[in-house]
Amino acid sequence: MITHGTEIKLFTGNSNRPLAEAIAKELNLKLAEAEVGTFSDGEISVHIGETVRGRDVFIIQSTSQPVNDNLMELLVMVDAARRASAGRITVVMPYFGYARQDRKARPRDPITAKLVADLIEAAGADRILTMDLHAQQIQGFFNIPVDHLIGGPLLYKYFTPYVDEDFVVVSPDVGSVARARQVAKKLNCNMAIIDKRRPKANQLEVMNIIGDIKGKKCLMVDDMIDTAGTICQGAEALYNNGAKEIYACCTHAVLSGPAIERIQNSHISKLVILDTIDVPSEKLIDKIEVVSVAKIFALAIDNVYHDKKMSDIYEE
After folding, report:
1. What is the 3 state secondary structure string of 29-97?
2. Catalytic annotation on 196?
3. Does domain 8-150+294-315 match CATH 3.40.980.10?
4. Which of 3, 37, 114, 132 is 20 to 30 Å from the Cα of 182, by its Cα?
5. Which residue among the candidates 114, 196, 216, 217 is catalytic per the annotation?
6. Range list for CATH 3.40.50.2020 in the chain
């Protein structure tokens, strides 16, 4: 349905309200009225408090912890907007949960990322706006348009003042090489790779470091930090091989389980994260610094509404 000329309606669930409010502020809008809670037995309860008929509706919701509650909130909100005759529904997912289950790693494994994509489509979403999917192929799991933003420019902009001839970007594993290479290219510096092998689940063994990091300032780049095992053991390997100073950055700070304790006790001197996930204040230790994605998502929402190309965002 054509929605040009009608107003934008921004809604949010409970996963990351501070980010939603910041996005609304960037757009000079107020968050639309919606009650998102639970019944006494835990069922999700949603009531949209204003008309959305024919409007361009954007629902901002990361599927972070508690993952299943936040996912269900999103699905019910999309269904509510569809049944209220919204003109177009765009799901804004700064963090797409279940993205790590993107393939059958073992026999009889599910592909849960595809299941989540199907659920969002079935609920009635017309478009997805997200950032740094754990696996690029997840875009192909949807039969609706996916606008895939990248957080790298925000991260390497932060570290630009740190760059000198001794600065090296490090990929913490082989899977992050493309991401690290992109950041190294933008910062015009050298790159190294940590070659690791995992003998069994939740056990990590660092085997080798490819590249020169002795006496260097190292920046490890990843899309997600969950329990922080990979990043902290990578920092230990860099330290043991002579790195002078160690930084880390990521787009999605899941920070579950022992993550904060590991980071606090690690050789990482600074960890820079984006606010795609609302990290509780008690987890924001001195080593962690947060950079907001509110402006880039606000620009993306405006571009979706006006049918402008997404590359304009990064030119700005």
Report:
1. CCCCCEEEEECCCCCEEEEECCCCECCEEEEECCCCCCHHHHHHHHHHHHHHHHHCCECEEEEEECCCC
2. yes
3. no
4. 114
5. 196
6. 8-150+294-315, 152-291
